[in-house]
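Study the following:
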Amino acid sequence: MPLWYGGDYNPEQWPEEVWEEDVRLMQRAGVNLATVGVFSWAKLEPRDGEFDFGWLDRILDQLHEGGVRVDLATATASPPAWLAKMHPEMLPVTAEGTKLWPGSRQHYCPSSPVYREHARRLVTAIAERYAEHPALELWHVNNEYGCHVSRCYCDASAAAFRGWLENRYSTVEALNEAWGTAFWSQRYDSFDEVLPPRAAPTFQNPTQLLDFDRFSSDELLACYRAEVEVLRRVSPDVPITTNFMGFFKPVDYWAWAKEVDVVADDSYPDPADPDAPAYAAMQRDLMRSLRGGQPWLLMEQAPSAVNWRQRNAPKAAGQMRAWSYQALARGADGILYFQWRQSAAGAEKFHSGMVPHSGTETRVWREIEELGQELAALSDSLAGTRVGGDKAAIVLDWDSWWAIEQPASPTALPYLDGIFAWHRSLTALGLTVDFVQADGPLADYPVVVVPSLFVASDAQLQHLHDYAAAGGRLVVTHHTGILDENLHVRLGGYLGRLQETLGVWIEEFSPTAGAIGVYEGAVVKAESAEVPAARLRGDVLGGSAAASSWGEVLHPRSASVLAEFAHAGLEGSPAVTVNEIGDGAAWYVATLPEPSAREALLSAIVEQTGMTIERVPEGQEVVRRGPYTFRIDLVQNTVEVEGAVDSED
């Protein structure tokens, strides 16, 4: 398989005389894969049960003749107006009871039997017509599941939620126990009494909220599976994917990754945000990790500016190339864009395209053409290879993400703040970072960091304990092991099984003042506090250091204290501890230390493992993949590729 290069192609937006020019330009740019048909349901099925495939036949034939392979979409992401008119009951409803109408996109309830029936009919027709088409390379199911409607609260969703709960708990008594319904007189006598967590007077049942998050992710996955069943039956040899959206909270990608043949991702870091490259690196590491290091596809990125921020900055000269190489270095086997030709009408007409409004005499087009040539030169020796280097792991958990950001918590604490902070520090030491699940394979990682595993089962905590006892280096941060999988508090000092692992127990939480994270688009500002919220002291942190967001009254049992809090209210309380356990060791970090302190701590831990520390300057990345070492300066937007081919800059 080559390195794929191309993007979303929407020929239905253009007169057919433009199509021939499109294919010529694709050949000129080195495009070898086009995603076709993502939003074409209304054109493919203009009336109920009446299909028009003539236009799609013609464009697929033209692409094939031009040597361009096709990632063919199932077109189910945006139902046509006639379907909504015939069946308004399929439209989604918000928690406040507002129905969301056509005129935008993704206007369907994931639980709607009507939507699923019509989607399957469309997919069947497409699959039966194009399964043997010589251009077909990949099936693209729906588009960005949950992007706009990740939760629906209508009656169809309520019925599906009740069925999901009955399957999970079997009896209403078990549900009452799991949800703690003795509180606030919330007891249920039958599943028929249960509703989705619609708008309510005040705080809602926390476990009900978590279960609805789980259910909603599963319902979207059920929509995906219904289409996949058709595709597997009709064209069993063609791989299938759908496009993920990085760290997207509503959908548990650990569950979804098992259902795709190749992980595909849409990534739109803000060119004006200095933290965006570091966040993008973390997102790319997640995509590689979801299927155990398998190469993935960058399905969408912007050639320059997007159209949906308050300020839509264009990418600077070389920035698109540098960020594309970042994805390649971190495991991507394809660099694709939204979209091929910049639209002349519609809500995304100001979103950049590979062929801009101004045509081919433009900087954007020249960069598109140049990158296509470079990827063709790398293709044979890079495609299919895996990312190497010394590796550490970070535990990422959607249940913890959903639960920790619920209301009625000790403090508002964005989950990704900690994930981003620890990822950034590990990569600054030159380590490759994989994401893992708490109960997943850990033995191959000398160091595993567990940021705020707020929700954890007994089995997960035991698995982490066993990893450390077998010789691993386990780094656990605050907010870990606080609740079980039903959101019941682990009494007696929190942490559960990890009390023995870490050699500590927690008396009391003490959230500190100061910034706790600011979201801007998809980017997390993990360290935006100008004034430190706490002070730490300890040689392992390089002396006195700042910390933010969190503190707690911590008591060591068998652990050694490496650093203490040094501000009023927590002065003298342990902030960082270490405990020898079996053949390994476990550290506990009761706050979020500043970057230099985190790196000092991690350096001391990494040195124990024998891994090499190669510090990388701020704004730069050094990543090894296959026969190459990629050196990327994301400030100057330069790239050097060293290895099987001559360096290029």
The longest strand covers residues 574-581. Residues 159 and 392 are 43 Å apart (CA to CA). The radius of gyration is 26 Å. DSSP finds 17 helices and 26 strands in the chain.
